UniProtKB/TrEMBL annotation:
InterPro entries: ABC_Gly_betaine_transp_sub-bd. It comes from the Bacteria. Its main location: membrane. It is found in: Cell membrane. It holds the Pfam family OpuAC. This is Glycine/betaine ABC transporter. GO terms for cellular component: ATP-binding cassette (ABC) transporter complex. GO terms for biological process: choline transport; glycine betaine transport. Keywords: Cell membrane, Membrane, Transport. It comes from Paenibacillus albicereus. The lineage of its organism: Bacteria, Bacillati, Bacillota, Bacilli, Bacillales. GO terms for molecular function: amine transmembrane transporter activity; carnitine transmembrane transporter activity. Residues 37-177, 196-298 form the ABC-type glycine betaine transport system substrate-binding domain.
Length: 299
């Protein structure tokens, strides 16, 4: 498997918006209501890559809840995880943009802030999207991609291995070997491909690193294809599939998070349906913070 730009994940360890003064006063550290949470975190929300739908949703929340004095800090998934890790180790207050499935909920004691205005939406799924013509050009790859569906528990195992330091391709291979029966079901009745290279676009979100590597493993080891993993930003991922430069991606969060991208390229891609159900997006804080709703952030 050829992997492009994987090192970029490690290269973006910029610590964003992490204040360490939270222990100075009890009120600030616990972040109890009445505007003190804002002070405790310097009115900063630690975001991820600017192309993520999660960032658009967080901007929506800032506007919906009247948080005009707050800043949503751009960065990357990796930088957000570093900031969160540092804060939790010091029991500092921090607010990050988060999503499920993600390993951070297993590693730390965290909670989503309530979102009564539903700025982050609800009832969403991760879908597989293919370029037009893939069905004719690589029918076996297409048939498998159409069939591919797993659970957040499956994905969590791959994510945890990567988080523990395993290379994504190795973590995917180990998971595949432990879950051969599930994979049998995905490829059941599908003939081997013709050795063509299937190009998979993805963004360096932990969830999508896991799914894309598992899909690549199956294409290579069960269906005889070669794969090329193209790590890009969210906009180019959609543009790549719509323009035919990428064959497919398994990272389309719909109907809400990637709505703008889906509308922009409507008619230029094929939606193969859900590959994972039961996702969630929102603002996430360590459980030791005394705040429960985005509404509490005002002031
Ligand atoms: N995410 C993870 C993506 C989709 C997958 C929630 C960070 C996004 O916001 O676009």
């Amino acid at each position: 498997m050829k992997s492009i730009g994987a090192a970029a994940i490690a290269a973006t360890l910029v610590v964003a918006g992490c204040s360490s003064n939270g222990n100075a006063d009890a009120d600030g550290a616990s972040g109890s209501g009445g505007g003190s949470v804002g002070k405790a975190v310097s009115h900063k929300i630690v975001g991820i890559d600017p192309g993520a739908g999660l960032m658009a949703a967080a901007e929506r929340a800032v506007s919906d809840y009247g948080l005009s004095d707050w800043t949503l800090v751009e960065g990357s998934s990796a930088a957000m995880a570093v900031a969160l890790d540092k804060a939790v180790k010091n029991e500092d207050p921090i607010i990050v943009t988060g999503w499920t499935p993600h390993w951070m909920f297993a590693k730390y004691d965290l909670k989503y802030l309530d979102d009564p205005k539903k700025s982050f939406g609800e009832d969403e799924e991760i879908r597989t999207v293919a370029r037009l013509g893939l069905k004719e050009d690589a029918p076996s790859a297409y048939a498998f991609l159409d069939k591919f569906e797993w659970t957040d528990a499956d994905m969590a195992k791959v994510m945890a291995s990567v988080q523990d330091g395993q290379e994504p391709a190795e973590a995917a291979a180990a998971w595949a070997q432990d879950n051969a029966a599930l994979i049998d079901g995905w490829v059941d009745g599908i003939e081997k491909g013709d050795g063509k290279t299937i190009k998979l676009a993805y963004v360096a979100w932990d969830s999508e690193i896991a799914s894309t590597n598992v899909v690549a493993w199956v294409l290579e080891n069960r269906l005889g294809y070669k794969t090329e993993l193209m790590q890009v930003e969210a906009g180019p991922m959609w543009a790549g599939v719509a323009g035919g430069d990428a064959d497919a991606m398994v990272a389309a969060w719909l109907p809400i998070t990637h709505k703008d991208y889906a509308e922009q390229y409507e008619g230029k891609y094929e939606d193969l349906g859900a590959n994972l159900k039961g996702t969630k997006l929102g603002l996430v804080v360590p459980s030791y913070m005394d705040v429960s709703s985005i509404e509490d952030l005002k002031g």
